[in-house]
Design goal:
Elements lengths: L2 E3 L6 E3 L1 E4 L5 E2 L2 E5 L1 H13 L4 E3 L8 H13 L5 E7 L6 H14 L5 E7 L6 H6 L2 H10 L3 E8 L3 H10 L4 E5 L10 H10 L3 E5 L12 H8 L7 H10 L6 E5 L3 H11 L9 H15 L21 H13 L3 H11 L14 H5 L6 H11 L3
Parallel strand pairs: 3-6, 3-12, 6-7, 7-8, 8-9, 9-10, 10-11, 11-12
Antiparallel strand pairs: 1-2, 4-5
Bound molecules: NADP nicotinamide-adenine-dinucleotide phosphate.
NADP nicotinamide-adenine-dinucleotide phosphate binds next to strand 12 and helix 10.
């Protein structure tokens, strides 16, 4: 296993972290973790140098924290780090923050959480967090020894990311990143900035929830041309590890074989290792994915503001993602979590004002109907 320093914390973390949101389950029920299988997977990962597990209050409907609390205590592990997250969308008062942290400490059977992250800090939840005095809460939790380090995970626009990085002396950030996401959300620029400020940089959803693992035949043909043969998952992970600003990649894994494979890939995850030819191929793959775009919206925003508050570019972005990656389920989660009620396509009253303004001449009314249909609104 290779290790990198997590920003200014100086903590040596394995470049592969275990994302504890995709454990195998029983009878298709997310809260029924297949504990025997998951123990084998965690044992293998930790025995082979993985030293950071990432969970969250909501993962497996709360069962992930419960399970990890038992597992970590029984195994009596040393030098294994854990991050968990407070559900920012449920916070309205300071009391909520204190109650969640105490409940999480209890579930995790510990007096202190290594890395405590604000989950999905975005513009929608930020006013409530500010009102609840989130920074005083984090200061108090640090002073009381209930947490050791702070951070936030992020799914919003780059500009807001930069603002949030500067708002508090965070220790780490967790952002969505893959070769498809260089210019999406925080993206490469946000990662560069956070790293330059000394923050530890963790990547989540490196395979876009699995969409980059099972890729269509026409795209596989591009990978087949490479001199060094790698699986699509290895290409995706190596591309991230190639970036020296990134300290750790949390990958979700649902089988023992995936853990074996990813641990093996991590043994070779050196920074700045890919050749320019290989980087060019990644670009080709990216373009091939982008060819699957359904609505040619450039997010110029000329159509905005919509009188009903519909966020037309974002509706099209989620719709395009669902098609590009052939993964409606995962994208649907983003669509409903990230957009406010009024921003979603079902608020379109078909006035057609936006169509007069669109430089791409998109038939917005019709396309928004398809968005609604795709996401079952
Ligand atoms: N803070 C946040 O807002 C947030 C949001 C999302 C995720 N996260 C964190 O980031 C972690 C990673 O994100 P994620 O789990 O959503 O997505 P991910 O890591 O991009 O994808 C995980 C999925 O990829 C597939 N996979 C992994 N390794 C593979 C391999 N070697 N071969 C074939 N398929 C492989 C599996 O799909 P199948 O199960 O379908 O086989 C697995 O469930 C999470 O577990 C969580 O800890 C945080």
């Amino acid at each position: 296993m290779l290790y990198r320093k997590l920003g200014k914390t100086g903590v040596e973390v394995s470049i592969l972290g275990f994302g504890c949101m995709r454990f195998p389950t029983l009878n298709g029920k997310t809260e029924r973790i297949n504990q025997d299988q998951t123990r084998k997977m965690l044992n293998y990962a930790l025995d082979n140098g993985v030293n950071f597990l990432d969970t969250g209050y909501t993962y497996h409907n709360g069962a992930s924290e419960h399970f990890l609390g038992r597992y970590l205590n029984e195994e009596d592990l040393k030098d294994v780090y854990l991050s968990t997250k407070i559900p920012s969308w449920n916070i309205t008062r300071r009391e909520d923050l204190d109650n969640y942290l105490d409940e999480q400490l209890n579930k995790l059977q510990t007096d202190t959480i290594d890395f405590y992250l604000v989950h999905n800090l975005n513009q929608k939840y930020w006013p409530h967090l500010e009102k609840a005095d989130i920074f005083q809460f984090l200061d108090d939790a640090l002073a009381d020894g209930k947490i050791k380090y702070t951070g936030f995970s992020f799914h919003d626009e780059l500009e807001f990311f930069m603002e949030v990085v500067d708002l508090y002396p965070w220790d780490m950030i967790m952002v969505q990143y893959s070769y498809m996401d260089e210019d999406y959300q925080a993206g490469r620029e946000g990662i560069r900035y956070a790293s330059s400020q000394g923050l530890g940089v963790a990547v989540m959803e490196p395979l876009r929830g699995g969409a980059l693992a099972n890729i269509p035949e026409d795209i596989q043909i591009i990978w087949n041309k490479a001199e060094t043969r790698r699986s699509p998952v290895e290409w995706a992970l190596q591309y991230i590890w190639d970036n020296p600003d990134i300290d750790i990649v949390f990958c979700g894994m649902s089988t023992l074989k995936q853990v074996h494979d990813n641990v093996k890939y991590a043994m070779d995850g050196y920074p700045e290792k890919l050749t320019s030819n290989e980087k060019y191929m990644v670009k080709e793959v990216k373009m091939a994915f982008k060819d699957r775009i359904m609505v040619d919206c450039t997010s110029c925003g000329y159509c905005m503001p919509c009188s009903e508050g519909v966020n037309i570019p974002k509706c099209f972005m989620h719709y395009n993602h669902a098609n590009i990656y052939d993964d409606v389920e995962n994208e649907s989660m983003h669509y409903f979590v990230l957009l406010k009620d009024e921003e979603r396509a079902n608020n379109c009253i078909e006035c057609g004002e936006c169509e007069n303004l669109c430089p791409q001449m998109i038939n917005i009314k019709q396309e928004l109907k398809k968005v609604r249909k795709t996401f079952n609104e």
